[in-house]
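Anyone have tokens for Citrate synthase? Sequence:
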Amino acid sequence: MVNAQPPKNMLTVRDNRTGKVVDIPIQDNSIPATAFKVLKAPRAEGEREENETEKGLRIADKGFLNTAVIRSEITFIDGDAGVLRYRGFPIEQLATKSSHLETAYLLIYGSLPTASQYKVWQDEVLHHGVMHSDAEQFFKSFRYDAHPMAMLTSAFAYLGSYYSEANPSLQGQKLFTKGDPESLAVMDKQIYRLIGKATTLAAMAYRVRQGRNFVTPPTGLSYTGSFLYQMDHLGEENYKPHPVLEKALDVLFLLHADHELNASATTVLQTGSSLVDPYSAIAAGCASLYGPLHGGANEAVIRMLISIGKPENVPGFLEAVKRKDKVLSGFGHRVYKTSDPRSFIVRQIADEVFRVTGKDELLETAMALHHEAMKDDYFVKRKLAPNVDFWSGLIYRAMGFPLDFFPVLFAVPRVVGWLAHWRQMMLQEGGVKIWRPRQIYVGPGKRDYVAVDERVAEEGPRLTPSPVVHSG
Ligand code: SDX
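Reply: yep, here.
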């Protein structure tokens, strides 16, 4: 229906194929994509039936550059101003005043806990840090040099196999969407388990890599302190992690806890929209984070710095990046078009850690790279600036973590954000709709089966499977 003088909060669209004009309501600076389905048109001369023109317009948005798929109250980012807020609290304030576990409560339940609420929360999370002893066999089934993210991703799905009571496929699909006290209790227990055991699973993956026995989560230490203890304890009496390193890692965990609909959080929601159990959804998110474009970038940054070597090699490397022969890992972001606010805090943490561990020899190269890239028109024009991964790897290296363990140090805290978004979707108004995007089909039109002796071989790269040379 078209108004003669449409109200201001409407988008008026005219389809020139038919002359049809529609007014589409604008809500929260967005319009519903389904509103365009009313714009149907007869198929044009020679147009493919697969375009489904008569069925209404579709919205094309490769890579989700401008598509909102959920209403969220959790995290807000202003990419132009370099603003990041968890439930309205600026990240800079949380980084200096809060802790990872307190921020986890904030992200998941929406408010800062009172002292008594926090004690219950912390006690439950730490209580659920212990893993079933059978998990030792699971982790020992990996080769010692298996990538820790492969172990962690598998471990989250494995973890879910212990809890049939948390599996909607067994208990009924409404297990987590009812929102009644019983359903919330089951949900919260899985949240305790996943956050509590994320550090334990990560530490077990680390011990596999080091060829060492597993360490039972200690009592009396903080969440992050317990994590460091489980990785580093080698039988010393009364071992305690270094307080500066424990605090630095806790702030890094807090900074990595959530980042609205990044690729891995979106993966958790895409997977969770089928109402699968949260362990499987978290495992999917972990797999997405593993990629070098996302959480794997902190590992890629160090490999990049090692390949550059000395600061005097930076200009040559940047030229290779401009030729698109190389990628400047740790730079660029889909949302931030200025420096990631977390990168400034990570940079400060690096100096605090280096005062304990000694400066990492790659720091000079990283600083030279940062300095040159930030004033180079190629990067300035593309609004490429350091993201959270640019400096964090230097800290992890200085703390002695193996290079391929760095993404694990991203995944462990990000379990909090994944759970916050998963819980929000399970409880959202109107219930959960399965996420099932549309496509624009440009493949072959209808064709008939061809008997094998009448076929003409398709040849050429990508058209046939690559041959494999078998050794032995
Ligand atoms: C994280 O989404 C999140 O919130 C993620 C995260 C979180 O907390 O969850 O913040 C964590 O994943 C941070 C990002 C870590 N990844 C990296 O550091 C990998 C390097 N960065 C790039 O791969 C890239 O910047 C992305 C993937 C992060 C963003 O890619 P976009 O938004 O799709 O940007 P694009 O690829 O369209 O780039 C636009 C232009 C292109 O050049 P032109 O084609 O216009 O000539 O910028 C170029 C790109 O080639 N470009 C880069 C570059 N990033 C983009 N060129 C060199 N080096 C880079 N790093």
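The chain has two domains: 10-55, 81-439.
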